[in-house]
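Exercise 3.2. Students should predict the tertiary structure of the chain below and write it as structure tokens, then compare their answer with the key that follows.

Predict this chain's 3D structure.
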Amino acid sequence: MEQVSVRPSGESATAQSHQQLLDEIERLRAEQQRLEQTVCTLQAENTRLNEHWQTLLAGLGDASWSYDLQTDVLTRSPAYYQQLGYLDESPDWLALLHPQDRPTWSYELAAIRQGHQAHFSVTYRIRAHDGTYAYRFDLGYVFTSSANTRSLRGVSGSLTVPVQSQQPLSRMASRLTNLMSQLQDGLLLEDEHRHIVLVNQYFCDLFAVPMSPQQLTGIDCSGMADQSKSLFSDPDAFVAQVAQLLHDRQPVLGEELTLADGRIFERDYIPLFNEGEYTGHLWKYADITRRKRAEDAALRQKEKYQRIIENMNLGLIEVDLDERIVYTNQSFCAMSGYDADELIGQIATDMLLRGQHVQVMKEKNASRLDGHVDTYEVAIKNKRGEAMWWLISGAPIYSDDGAVIGSTGIHLDITKQKQLESDLRVAKEAAEDSSRAKVLFLANMSHEIRTPMNAILSLGQQLTKTTLSDKQQFLLSMINSAASNLLVILNDILDFSKIEAGQLSLEQIGFNLPNLLQAATQVLAGQADEKGLRLNTRTDADIAPVLLGDPYRLNQILFNLLGNAIKFTETGSVTLDCQGYQQGNRQFVNIKVIDTGIGIEPAFQEKIFNKFTQEDGSIGRRYGGTGLGMSITKQLVEMMGGTISVDSQPGKGTTVQVLISFAIGQPASLTPPDEVAPPDDFLRKKRILLVEDNEMNRMVVQMILESYGPTIVEAVNGQKAVDLLRTEPFDLVLMDVQMPVMDGLEATRLIRREISTTLPIVALTASVIRSEQEECFQAGMNDFLGKPFDEKDLIAQLTKWLNPPQPAAAPAAPLYNLDKLELISRGSQDFIRQMVQLFCTETPATATQIREAYAAGDFKRVKYLAHRIKPSVDNMGVAAQVNVVRRIEELAQIGDDSDELRALVSSFDEAIHEVVKQMQAQVW
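Answer key:
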């Protein structure tokens, strides 16, 4: 029912106003009572909270304290001073504080005043009643009263710190207080009502919270999950999971959360309980984006390499320290023939290896303990019993703490490669057998051809000394010419074979290049005159007078080039032109052979140096030859470190150019001139044993030596020679190498062992293979004479061993020659000086050691020392002692204490000391 308002009048209106005033006063009184009751309730709650806090503080420390931030009044409990020995008094606390710790206490108090932190923590030293200083700590928290006054309330405790380990504890406590804010994990501590107790800045940064940790402290964060869910890729799932965790109150660690921007967080939820009562929980968030991406990348990389290994058919296994297989991939199973379950847990060596390879594998596995990584091959048998070869690369496996816990092996099946190696080895052996057969064939061919050639040439030379008619003389000259041409062809074939077999060596001796060029043209001048050709020679005057090299092979090159030029030139001229220049200690030479002959087609110029090659068949028929000359020439030039080229035009002539360099030598390096012919009767009263199975060769030697008057006894094989030497004395033996019954090598070894170690034995052989020459010296022969030989060569050998020149009163040349050292060092004087000093220091001592070893009868050491010193004697150019030291080595190997060995050892020791004396006199 709606009320109707009636306007009062007069006195009634006054009474009504008074009543309304009374009603309003009553209402205000009721409101005041309600407010007073509310204030009382709040004050009671504040008192309860303060009492609760005081009780909490009392339980956490020995003494409580408070500090009024408005009045700066510090109040400490009596228990605090009692602990310091002040029983009935409360002294001025600030006066008791150590002067050095006052700034720290003031700094922490200022931080509280300015609102930088809500927690107070400081350590300090306080003077006790007995005058000593005690270590204390204060922990507190800021409280705000209902009157909006702020104060610090906290507890105090004592610290026991040894004097020797005293540190700025107050500073340390400050660091510990701030540790939470420094952690790189987001931390949020909530109480049981989901009010924030503690949060750090990193948490605020992770979730882009616009407030500071101090501002967040105490607020209700019940709605924070909803506020933050938009950050996550699945917002609803995030909120639901938070609710589930809070409901279950069970620890959950390492939970991964994906954010909308692609980041990944790892979350830990830790509920907190105190004596079974739930008191809150801790959230910890960590940004693991980089770690997860690295793990994903590592996983992808691992999968990539795993696929590579699988595609490469590489077998992979891992074994533990007991060699038991703990892992294997499918490729290894396919290689071994076993399934994975047959391999896991088995000892690898027992399953796959046999014989000595078991021990090898055990040694390899043992080496893994030392961290060794290596690769090796082993033979295995697979499940089917098939023999296989594996290449294994093994490496140790380490635990997280760095200890070796096993090893891993990557296996590659190399069975086919090993079979190929075996096939190649067989093929190589077959090729070597073929090469040896070829060398043997060449030796036999050389012997079979050169032996009759020796007889033909030697008998022809002897026949020229007789009286012949003109026609006979003409026919004899044709025979000699044909034999000489045949010998040239034979020498070409043998030279080429020696080059291919690597048995052709070059000399390093002194020679005069202009003289060599002149001699070459003089020898071929007759052929040029017969064809009416002009043979010209032009030589640069600036070429050094002495060069070091092989004049014999250079002469062969010149003969080939000049001979070809004369052969293929019908009219005009052949010119030998030599120009040069010096650079350092080397002479560079440009030799040109220029002719006006038939020339060479351009297409053939590229093939001119190929073996067995001529421009066309008519060339061979018209001019003769084997087609080997230019090939041999090119290989000789290249062996000397030079180059050769051809420039030619058909019908206009050819120019062949050789570019080569030689070391510059000294006059003492020149090859000594031929020895003066011995007297005609130097062989009279000499007994020579001629051991030769070829009757013509025996006749040749008899005819050559007939005029010299020696006594020559013939033997047709080595056995007959040995029998003769056992019963008759001889001054020298000319020993053929290849003979029936007993060859020359075996006969010589038998002579050296049983008959004589000093009797001169000169080998007669048609072989030009270097290995056979070495065999002659090793068997005990003194020298080597190749067939065919002429009278001059044979007499030179006999003179050398039966009529040696008497030593001159003063040597014409130094006892040593450093030309070879100059060549090796390319003119480096420092190197030469060091080598000479080394020779002067070590070689005399070694020579003396040889003498001492001989005196002690230690022939094995004599041989060793002689072999060791031989290169030094050769490199220093001590020519007179080169053969001596070699002979010492040969005799020491026989082990015979002969007069010859005794004399050689003694003379060698004396000679070496003389050489060193001469070197030192020349201030090397």
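Discussion points: The chain has 32 helices and 27 strands. The mean pLDDT is 77.
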